[in-house]
Write the structure tokens for this entry.
Amino acid sequence: MFAEYTASELTSIFAMQGFAGLILFSVFVLMALGLAIIFGQMGVINMAHGEFMILGAYVTYLVSHLFADYMPESLYNSYFLIAMVLAFFVAGALGAFVEWAMIRHLYKRPLDTLLATWGLSLIMQQTYRTVFGAREVGVVLPDWLMGSVQLTDMIEIPINGIFVMILTVVITIGVAIMMQRSRLGKQTRAVVQNRPMAAAVGINTEKVDRLTFALGCGIAGIAGSAFTMIGSTGPTSGQLYIVDTFLVVVFGGAASLLGTVASAFTISQAQSTMEFFLSGSMAKVLTLLTVVGILMLRPEGLFTLKIRR
Amino acid sequence: MRSTPTSNRKAEGLLRSNRRSLLKGLLAIPAAIALAHTSLPAYAADGVNTTGLAVTDDTVTVGILHSVTGTMAISETGSVQAEKLAIEQINAMGGVLGRQIEYIQEDGASDWPTFAEKAKKLLVSDNVAAIMGCWTSASRKAVLPVMEQYNGMLFYPTFYEGLEQSPNVVYTGQEATQQILEGIDWASKTKGAKSFFLLGSDYIWPRTSNKIARKHIEKLGLKTVGEEYYPLGHTQFNSVINKIKLKKPDVVFISVVGGSNVAFYKQLKAAGIDMGKEKPLFLTISVTEDEILGIGGENIEGIYASMKYFQSLPNENNQAFVKAFKERWGDDIVIGDVTQAAYLGPWIWKAAVEKAGSFDIDKLKETLPGIEITAAPEGYVKVHENHHLWSKTRVGHAQLDGQYKVVYESPELIEPNPFPAGYQ
């Protein structure tokens, strides 16, 4: 199949293809991280995860308009970073509210949280539709995020891809440090391992739950904000990401961040390689089949947390 | 001890049968009302209406059936607005056969069985004289048996894959060959294109369209160097962009739809492909002005689209239409190909009804072929015997402001050919 291309062409293409796989990997990690935290630490399956992401995207859209209308033009290029921080806090605050109003009443009924968060996703979609209209909105990106870095004649690396990669690394490391070192992280892990005991030694488990849920939603918000660079922003755009997100989290083993990263890497590399050699739909089918096969052999996912029950 | 439960059960049974008869009684009330209602001569049964349609001496009721909730709401909103505008304009001109048009709007909710159910409701309980509606092929396929069983008339606005023809449907959008062949001819003649890369979302419309495109490319003696499909809602196109870079086709022929569109063009731009350089040239059959709103003009500037209508068409009818549309629905609004096709629906229906002198569906079927709309925004159109429209095809060049500039227009009206021999 490659007979008609020169060696240098092929090298460049494979370099770019490797890079495409890495970008896909970052995107997967970024979108799955929030869900993995909530699912892994609290056992809550948040079906509204995609809608929290889109909330971040809409925040970005609003901030870009505010900057365009009310701020001096010289500041416009920096709006994206501010929007991202804001997206984190807005989505996190809504997450905390949802936990307080809905999720905390359902901890003993995991199937009901599934239904309740699905209902929540429908409510959020309809709210977006009412507020922003049914059509997709276009988010204008600052110039420094557009275009590509030209390494050689053939190899071009998209700047927003690099940006997503750096963002993913920063957030993943941040979350990992937080979980291992910070007070909240330690408390969270204590609650996951043994809730009654954690409560007995004086950890406010309700507060920990709320903060964990808020953190997961906040990260979803950042992801959504970042994805305005590569995807669409509409009331139902969140649905586009939800299947892949669940796939990554379930495949990685729910309780481990390392598992999420490893599973995102495996799935993204498999998919982007196969997409290149086969067609897009076939690549998807094969990826799903492989994941199903592995999950049949290892129902708990790639990595599991070993704790005494 | 043992007898107690039995007697309890008996008592319960008694209660239940009582409740059942009570329920029956309650149910009978609306039934009786409904009976009384149908037995009244609610609608004038004179010459213009012999089949019990919702026509009175001064009004006639039609149905509007689109998704205003769910995924498809993004696309279908424009069609609803166009149909309402057309109805209001017709009413302002005195209505149809002297009757003002009233409409009942139902929500298909992006769910195909719901479309069928609502179509049945419109035909059976509301007796509407026509339905303007449906958008996706899947919704049309769901509604089709209902239209045929209850003998309704559906005006369907979307460009679609063809391979269908029903006396109970008027297709006001283009079928695949009308849209595709002219576009490919244009690319090969004006731009000297020799090789094509076909890319689409994975469902019936792109697959059928690309089948037609591939056959036509072969007939012209040119080459198809790739054909790719991605699942609906796919958001990562870096691999296929690399493949395009490797294969270096002259033209990338695109039928990607929905949210995937936004992802595709944004990533194309980010990958350093300058669409304005036309190397390769991007030719789409799926991106109207509506979609550009979400994609952003700066991300798609320089591509070409092959369809029958662009908002920027310079003729007078279109300018009046755009002005009226903006006055009615706001200045920010854009009008895409399907929106204009939806606008034609009520006008074609009015013309057919007036020619027949009757609202009866069977008479419409006879008068519809040959109906002409001389002042349509897209120009002159005419209904073919196969209930599709004769129309021109144009090629538009996407501009930074999200509009298309028309760079080519087919010299003649193109005959609709939903079952193209040699292309299947």
The longest helix of chain B spans residues 3-39. Residues 176-307+392-409 of chain B form a domain with the Rossmann fold fold (CATH 3.40.50.2300).
